[in-house]
Structure formats: structure tokens, C-alpha cells
Amino acid sequence: MKALILSGGKGTRLRPITHSMAKQLVPVANKPTLFYGLEAMRDAGVREVGIIVGDTADEIKRAVDDGSQWGLCVTYIHQPQPLGLAHAVLTAEPYLQGSPFVMYLGDNIVKHGVTEFVQEFERARPNALILLAKVPNPQDFGVAELSGDQVVRLIEKPAQPKSDLALVGVYLFDSTIFQAARAISPSARGELEITDAIQWLIDNGKQVNAKQVTGWWKDTGSLEALLEANRLTLEDAEPLNEGQVVNSQLSGRVIVERGAQITDCVIRGPVCIGADSVLQGAFVGPFTAIGRRCRLINAEIEFSIVLDDSHLENLSARIENSLIGQGVQVKGGSRPSRTLQLMLGDHSAITFP
After folding, report:
1. Fewer CB under 10 Å: which end of the chain, C or N?
2. CA distance linking residue 285 with residue 271, whole number of Å
3. Residue 97 has pLDDT above 80, yes or no
4. Residue pLDDT, tens place only, 338-352
């Protein structure tokens, strides 16, 4: 069994952050989203991983390297243009060499990983196994119709869904998927859709099974979903204090990484404070992840993500529901305000009068 992790794409829903950062490297609970997928492969016993890369290939390679930190052997596969998931499968065919494989979208997080799904695929040996999750808005997803545990129909974003089971960004295939991907035509948006390839398998008598995800799953491609994934991940965090805490109140699940300094602060978990960050006179509310080497001086923030090397100083307004890029500076002035909601790209600077 091999793995194919898709880490191309432009991440338009997370701009401006993704103008200067691969969307798969935006952190959730201070860990790049892509790393959750790599950990899931490791835990499932998959050792050979191909990563599909595009314009952000250099960033992905710097972050992952050869994969040895996870005990993986990583190969990078360049997809010249993002022409669909089935096109990515065909691009990776020389690497996969007919091996069964698990395909995982690099901006997804599945709470319990993929171990049980890999085991189920190896036990039942269908041509394909797709992961599904119940969603309240199936019209926004690819939706599966089932007969028992077998898929009989896939519909992309149906106007009137007959099911609330959406496709999660995890699929397991045998080599018949290559025949299917070659047989289909581009969709209206000019892409080879994986849903069309799977439907081709169904229409041609191949066995396509489905399994429902237990626990939560998130596609982190939007700000709202990214913040929610951060919240859900932090809820499972174990408290840890490797920094220096002086005259401060820490309550709930709080992670203080090595070298962080917290003075005269109130921290209400779940919260993660990155290594070598400095907090003075700050309030950090629940579901917040502060990156490495950040400075929060006389500032309040909650339900937000702050990337490395950012400075928030002397703010009269509380920051909420925000994503703040690397090296950002937000400095307050004398005019009062109640709250701020921000989505700031790397190296932005805002000063309030």
C-alpha cells in the first residue's frame, strides 16, 4: 500500500495568507495541516508516500523534506496544472506502479486518522473505498447514495440531495482507478473529477464500498473551517508547560512551549502558546493558537490563529475569529473599539490612531 497526498492548489479561499504560503502549511494548533495527513499515513503503516505538488512545491519540500521525521519515504510528483483529482491520479501513475493506494487531500484533517479504513480496504479488497461523513449542507459537497455499504451513485453538489453523506477527502483505490480516470471527460470546469472516475467504476460493475467517518473531519480550505479545526484539535490537547509563567492565571488545557515567557496574563484554555513567544499583560481566550516567537503586549485575543513572528501590541479592542499571518504587526492607538476580526497576510502592518 502506498499513499498519494495532494498538496497542490492555490488556496483561494484563504487569501491573502495563501499568496505567500501553501494552504497545506497553514497551521492548526501550531502544526501545519499537511503534517496531520503524514502522521495518519505513518499510523496506518503506510511508508511510501507520493506528494502531488504544484506552484508551492519548494515550500512543501522545505517543510517535509524526505519524510524521515515520520519514518516515511516521500517522493514529490509535480502536477503542471491543477486539472482535477483524477488528473492527479494519472500524473502519479508511474510512481504508484499499479499498487493499491490511499489518496488524501493535504488540507484535510480526520480526527482518528485512516488506520481503520486502510485495514478495511485490505480485508475486503474492493476496487475502491470512499470515506463519508454526515453533513448538514450536503448540497455543497459530493454526495453518495448507498445500498448497504456499497455506493450506487455519486452526485456533485446536488440541488436536491437524496443523502446527507458527503465525500471526505480520503479515498482508497486499486489499479482500476487508472482505467476509470482515462475513460472520463473533463467536467464543465475543465477538470477530471474523481467523482466521475468513481462513478465510472460503479457503472462498469466494479465494487465501490463506503465507510462513514467516526469522530470529526474538516476540510481546512476556508477561514471558518480552519478556525473550527483549530478549536476541535485544541479540545483534545493535553496541558503542558515548558516555558516561564510569572504572576499569571492559566486555566483549562493550556500548552506553553519551550522558551515562551508569560507575565501578568490571563490564559483560558484550550490554548497553545508557541516556543519563544513573549506575552505581557495579555488575555488569551479559548481556542487560540499563538505561533513561535510572537509578542502579545497589552492585547486580547480569542478563537484565533496567529502565525510565527507576529506582534500584537497595545490594543484596546479584542481580536476574535481571526487568522493572522507570519511577521504581522498590529499596534493600537488611543481610539477605543470593542472587537476586531482580521485576516492578515504575511508581513502586514496595521496601526490604529
Report:
1. C
2. 7
3. yes
4. 666 666 666 665 655
